[in-house]
Amino acid sequence: MTSHTTRFAPSPTGYLHLGHVVSAMHARAHAGVSGRFLIRIEDIDAQRCTPELSTAVLDDLAWLGFVSEGPIIKQSDHLPRYRALLDGLRAKGLIYPCGCTRAEIAAHSTQRAPDGSLVYPGTCRHQPVSADRVPAWRLDMARALDAIGGEPGWHEEVRGRIVGDAAAFGDVVLGRRDNGVSYHLCVTQDDAMQGIDLVTRGTDLFESTAVHRVLQELLGYPEPAYAHHALLFGADGKKLSKRDGAEAVRNLRECGTMPKQVLALARAAFTQAGMYADR
Ligand code: GLU
């Protein structure tokens, strides 16, 4: 098996659950014998990610035997570094300020992006934002695609060469108005900075890769390969999340379940989910 630098990058919006464990196992397995498995905490959302939850997630991972083979990055410690990237994109005229509220976007948007979000109708692309509004910063996707010569592709482990559809996401937010950064921006920066050459994650993020590939090209970062894993679903048919308390590693721990048993549970649930790998 080839070796890679991979990462498990949870957002600590709740306790670690079996879906996370599958993701961590997937990343570690893909690192191979002489590769590196890294852990990164994606906690830029200060409302939803608390320091207590970050600590709990890291503690559960350690209890399960997941060791980061390099420094653990906490994105909240590096906000100025991500914001600096926006300065470069701003200087090139590739991002613009947007003062629209959610309600205004909902009133004017006519399309949904592949991730289910509303496609920005472009209202602020060519007009100034009124001074009483703190702006978000959006990527001018058409300009960005022009600057890099069209949609970049990527290699996916199972599906082979993929042609992206970043245009379908429209002008995504790169700098949120509350913290000046965004998931797309931070994940792109950190994957490059940590030398991740194989990005492993759930199929729910498959389409977003198109946006990350655009950013990698704009920022001059190398192209990693990608491997997606099937998602675990709760009894209600929805993706496992922090709402599924029964699946939280913390609860299993408190009931006396041993790490090996938790890993076996995750493996069994994953084998079952694999049957529905394409959602
Ligand atoms: N932090 C993201 C999440 O927990 C994953 C990001 C990624 O793997 O690209 O859903």
CATH class term of the largest domain? Alpha Beta
- The count of strands amounts to 10
Report strand order across the widest sheet.
1-2-3
Q: Give the bound compounds.
A: glutamic acid
Mean pLDDT: 93
What's the structural domain tally? 2
CATH 2nd-level architecture of the largest domain: 3-Layer(aba) Sandwich
- Tell me the fraction of residues in β-strands, as a range: 5-15%
What class do helices, strands and sheet pairing give?
alpha/beta
The termini sit apart by: 27 Å
Name the shape in a single word. globular
Could you list the spans in which at least 5 consecutive residues all have pLDDT below 50?
275-279
Name the CATH homologous superfamily of the largest domain.
HUPs
Keywords: Aminoacyl-tRNA synthetase, ATP-binding, Ligase, Metal-binding, Nucleotide-binding, Protein biosynthesis, Zinc
Organism: Kozakia baliensis
Pfam family, one: tRNA-synt_1c
Protein name: tRNA glutamyl-Q synthetase
Question: How would you describe what is shown here?
Answer:
With 279 residues, the protein is α/β, with parallel strands linked by helices. The protein has 2 domains: 121 residues, 3-Layer(aba) Sandwich (Rossmann fold), CATH 3.40.50.620; 118 residues, Rossmann fold (3-Layer(aba) Sandwich), CATH 3.40.50. It contains 9 helices and 10 strands. The strands form 4 sheets. A 3-stranded parallel sheet has the order 1-2-3. The chain has a 3-stranded antiparallel sheet with strand order 4-5-8. A two-stranded antiparallel sheet has the order 6-7. Strand 2, helix 2 and strand 3 form a beta-alpha-beta unit. Helix 1 crosses helix 9. The longest helix is centred in the C-terminal third of the chain and has 15 residues. The chain is globular. It starts with a strand and ends in a 6-residue tail after the last helix. The C terminus is likely disordered. Bound molecules: glutamic acid. The site of glutamic acid has 7 residues, from loops. Belongs to the class-I aminoacyl-tRNA synthetase family. Keywords: Aminoacyl-tRNA synthetase, ATP-binding, Ligase, Metal-binding, Nucleotide-binding, Protein biosynthesis, Zinc. This is tRNA glutamyl-Q synthetase. It holds the Pfam family tRNA-synt_1c. GO terms for molecular function: ATP binding; glutamate-tRNA ligase activity.
